[in-house]
Design goal:
Helix content is 69%, strand content 9%. Helix 6 packs across helix 7 and helix 20 runs parallel beside helix 22. The strands form four sheets. Strands 2, 3, 4, 5 and 6 form a five-stranded antiparallel beta sheet that branches. Strands 10-11-9-12 form a four-stranded antiparallel beta sheet. It has a two-stranded parallel sheet with strand order 1-7. The protein is of the alpha+beta class and 698 residues long. The protein folds into three domains: 437 residues, Multidrug efflux transporter AcrB transmembrane domain (Multidrug efflux transporter AcrB transmembrane fold, Up-down Bundle), CATH 1.20.1640; 114 residues, no CATH class; 120 residues, 2-Layer Sandwich (Alpha-Beta Plaits), CATH 3.30.70.100.
């Protein structure tokens, strides 16, 4: 008996111990899962060495006040009423600072005498706009309290508000998605299997692996909102086919082997190659995300790679033990197949595959070019649309006060004359509406000791003075990024390599630079690694080329749709889906190819195509339908723009991959059959020679 078979026999022999160990592990991981914290702030995942991250670190060390991360608008208020509201906002637990008109001008003077740009930054036609700095640790409660103060008829927006809303809403949405997904998986399995117990066995294995993975995320301490929202359902959808493949192989082996334990050993051996190839390529695809500078990539990649690894262990250790322990129930609840035979589909594919290859060839280049010509959002400023309260609030504020942002520029506290000159130069930029700084508020000749402590600590620290710059600009876009470059260049002229600039727009600019630099690297490594794994496991060069090209074209078609529909997309979703779709759907191509090669040893290529379609359709359709549904559920139910778009990409991408695997890949295998089967024929010929030699020796 081979070593592998001894291991398989050992698993089956110790089935009760294995089941108990996995159940206990899942039980403990359910508790650990509650200890894993979730981070919803995208800016926290910027590279640690980005200039905006360094600026935030310096400001946190030097100053008590933070950068304003919320804008609160209250309508139909007089100056005196606005001042009272400001006091109420300041009293909210978690609010670090509130900036309004009284901080930059004398509100006791007539409004007509004030500089109009300054006035209209904070007060227009009875509407007051407050810039609020909210503590990250207390933002959910703080945002809730602020809403109670201003009421639903008034508005608030900003990164702190977006993050707080996302934190609350995503938890509910993910729970809804998970429940619907599990029910759909159960329904699909009931339809596609031939036993009423089998779906529950598959779900038990999936549930065990998902719970263990979710609980083991405690090793990271904290996970991102993307990982929390998509990780579990993605693991379920991707790993589902592993259990299905194993059970189908077990059913096939039982037809020729009466001993169920031997049948399971044979099933593990026969399915090991395709499942491990699928699993390894999926893990590699997810691990490619770890190369991203933007740390949500490594966060999601590690969690998913760990999840698939746990799923593989569960399939080859826990599932055989569970199946052998419950096969009698499967036999007792066996029923006739609900789905018709796939032979008719196989015959249809045989006639349609060559035209489909031609269509594939026509779409290849336009889809590649289109997928690389999209327009993008990089930050979090567009994650909630106008159908949500925060989206409508944002529109109301921008309609009244325009698109404003606040930057903080910190410079060495050495010369008030230089600081004054810098302020004057910055004000020449047309987008700069107001600057709150020591020289602008106090003057360049008044010493610090003449100021009260509260005013001084807002403006100066021991080593730095800071300028709070209000700009008339969106949180992102070409104009905004050009403005940030101009401010940085001006600061560099006055204080070479001694300045720090922070703000939401600044962080988004750095985020854009980080993720765009990641794109080529992540995609090339993912493609190269998957190709290498396939080349090693399949002992071929032409087969990996065909499989990778097939799935990559499906990805290009998926990502080119927004371009041809003139839609802007979130770059983060665009970048992540490339690796996820490759890793999650290349499994279908591997399974199809392995079965085709298996059938080609005994029949011609046309019959092999028909038989392959008949054999793999249920398995592939089961997995693909679940993965597509999970994607569309995430797209429909999530109010978070990035998660929603990632979901729709996943749903459409899965369908694209499914169509190409079922209708185009057969044609490619048919056309390149000579190259694909050449090595297989040599192996068969060598085996025949060995048998002849052995017979002659006897």
């Amino acid at each position: 008996m081979k070593k592998r078979e001894k291991v398989y026999c050992g698993i089956i022999h110790h089935k009760k111990i294995i089941i108990v160990v996995f159940v206990l592990l899942a039980f403990f991981c359910m508790f650990f899962k509650q200890l894993v914290s979730v981070n919803y702030d995208m800016n926290d995942y910027l590279p640690v060495d980005s200039t905006s991250t360094l600026a935030l670190n310096v400001m946190e060390e030097e100053f008590e006040g933070s950068i304003p991360n919320a804008r609160v608008m209250v309508s139909n208020v007089a100056i005196s009423e606005a001042l009272e509201i400001k006091k109420e906002l300041m009293a909210v637990d978690g609010v670090k600072d509130v900036t309004w008109l009284d901080d930059v001008a004398d509100v006791t003077t007539p409004l007509e005498t004030m500089e109009q740009d300054t006035l209209e930054t904070y007060y227009i036609d009875g509407s007051a706009l407050f810039s609020v700095a909210i503590d990250e640790e207390k933002r959910i409660d703080a945002v809730t309290d602020i809403r109670e103060i201003i009421g639903d008829e008034n508005s608030m927006t900003g990164s702190a508000v977006s993050t707080a809303v996302a934190t609350i809403s995503t938890v509910k949405e993910v729970s809804t998605i998970a429940v619907i997904a599990v029910l759909f998986v159960l329904l699909v399995l009931l339809v596609t299997t031939t036993s009423f117990v089998e779906p529950f066995i598959v779900l038990a294995g999936l549930g065990i692996s998902i719970i263990i993975n979710a609980g083991s995320n405690l090793i990271f301490g904290e996970i991102s909102f993307v990982t929390n929202a998509a990780g579990n359902v993605l693991q379920m959808a991707v790993a589902l086919d592993y259990s299905v493949f194993l059970i189908h192989r077990f059913a096939e082996c039982r037809k020729t082997e009466t001993d169920v334990e031997k049948a399971m050993v044979n099933a593990i051996g026969m399915s090991m190659s395709s499942i491990m190839s699928s699993g390894l390529t999926t893990v590699i695809g997810f691990l490619a995300l770890c190369l991203m500078q933007f740390q949500i990539g490594p966060d999601l990649g590690l969690a998913l790679a760990k999840g698939i690894t746990i799923s593989l262990i569960t399939v080859f250790v826990f599932m055989p033990a569970l199946i052998i322990s419950t096969y009698k129930w499967m036999d007792k609840t066996e029923h006739r197949p609900f789905l018709p035979s796939s032979l008719k589909l196989g015959k249809f594919v045989r006639y349609a595959m060559i035209p489909m290859v031609l269509i594939f060839a026509i779409l290849l280049i336009p889809s590649y070019l289109g997928s690389n010509a999209n327009s993008y959002y990089y930050g979090a400023s567009h994650i909630f649309d106008s159908n949500t309260q925060i989206g409508s609030d944002t529109e109301a504020i921008e309609e009244k006060f325009g698109q404003n942002d606040t930057y903080v520029l910190m410079i060495p506290k050495d010369s008030t004359a230089t600081e004054y000159s810098l302020s004057k130069k910055l004000k020449e930029l047309p987008q700069v509406k107001n600057i709150l700084s020591y020289v602008d508020t106090v003057g360049e000749v008044i010493p610090e000791e003449y100021l009260d402590e509260g005013t001084l600590t807002k403006l100066n620290s021991e080593n730095y003075t800071r300028m709070v710059i209000t700009v008339e600009a969106a949180y992102e876009g070409d104009a905004t990024f050009s403005l940030i470059k101009s401010i940085r260049e001006i600061a560099q002229d006055y204080y070479p390599d001694e300045w720090y600039l922070a703000g939401e727009g600044v962080s988004t600019y750095d985020l854009m630079n980080a993720v765009t630099a990641d794109m080529v690297k992540v995609n090339l490594v993912a493609i190269g690694a998957v190709f290498l794994i396939l080349a090693i496991t399949m002992h071929s060069i032409i087969v990996p080329v065909i499989l990778v090209l097939s799935i990559e074209t499906a990805i290009w078609i998926n990502l080119s749709i927004p371009y041809f529909m003139d839609q802007k997309i979130f770059f983060i979703a665009y970048l992540i889906i490339s690796s996820i779709q490759l890793g999650a759907t290349v499994d279908y191509a591997i399974l199809f190819t392995e079965r085709y090669k298996e059938y080609r040893t005994s029949v011609d290529r046309k019959k092999a195509i028909i038989q392959t379609i008949s054999a793999v359709t249920v398995s592939i359709m089961t997995s693909a339908s679940v993965l597509a549904l999970v994607g569309f559920l995430l797209g429909i139910f999530s109010t978070h723009g990035i998660l929603s778009q990632l979901g729709f990409f996943l749903g459409k991408g899965t369908l694209c991959s499914l169509v190409i695997v079922m209708f185009v890949l057969p044609g490619l295998l048919y056309l390149f059959d000579g190259l694909i089967m050449r090595k297989k024929k040599r192996e068969v010929y060598q085996l025949e020679i060995q048998e002849v030699d052995q017979n002659e020796a006897v």
